User: What shape does this take?
Amino acid sequence: MTQWQAISARISALLDAGRFLLSTRESDKSSPMGVLSTGEAEPARYIFAAARMLSQDAKKVGEVLQAFFESHGDHLPDAPKACLRSFVGGGRYAWGEPEHLAGMTARITSLASFRAEFEYLIADTEAVTKSLVVRAFTHLQSSIAADQSVRDRWQQAHKDGEHACERLGACHLLLHGVWSFKAYGQRARTDLVLGGPRNNWDEPRRAATGLILTEWKRVVSEDWEEVEAKADEARRQAQIYCAEALAGFEVESTRYVVLVSKGRIGQMPKPANESGVTYAHFNVAVDPETPSKNARKPQ
Assistant: This one.
């Protein structure tokens, strides 16, 4: 994502420069069909030189995109990968040297169109993942309330400790297309189900729509002091992880703190933003009270 953001900024700068050049063309009384490379009269030859320079810069960006695809194509989600493959494979950035403004305009327009589509697909993947996470936790809480066997499993996990809750929770999230892990070190990841570091992320890429970093905490009391202390502990543990793209999924923007309690927590911590990272909080109540009883709990 860091490399892509740099490429995207470069395309944006080219687009701005192209707009500026075209905005000055009429004032210089250039030919409406563009400036020919053989033009010798001023200001035609100056405008052509600028157009040629921008076109060459656009071609260099195309070469950077080719290298980006070769380095990261296998790790991109399917839709962004197909978009990038289509662009670099079609060679739309590698036309011959343009001899007029139209050629320069075509190159930069092609890059701008690609960037808009690619960024939409990348952002859409993250938005879908966030939606799936909300659905997964809503489904989990509803299942605990409605299904005695599910409730029994989660009550036992709550007694057994955080690792048991993590394993059950990770399996449930995967049912909704979300692969979750927790921080093990600055760049290490722990598989919640297997309970150890995972080095091969090809399986998550094939099996999941999104990848998220989670920290699970068992809450014994629903008192605000313990709830806040557990949430703060989880956030601090998540902060040790230096985010990076894994299996083509960006895990920088949002991390998830899950508080597993016996009853429903009346007051949950609000989303926290620290160093550009949002920490969202979810409560999983393994023995939830009825809504009427829960409503009477002090806030």
Confidence is low (pLDDT under 50) at residues 26-40. Strands lie at 178-183, 189-191, 196-197, 210-219, 254-261, 272-274, 277-285. Residues 2-122 form one domain.
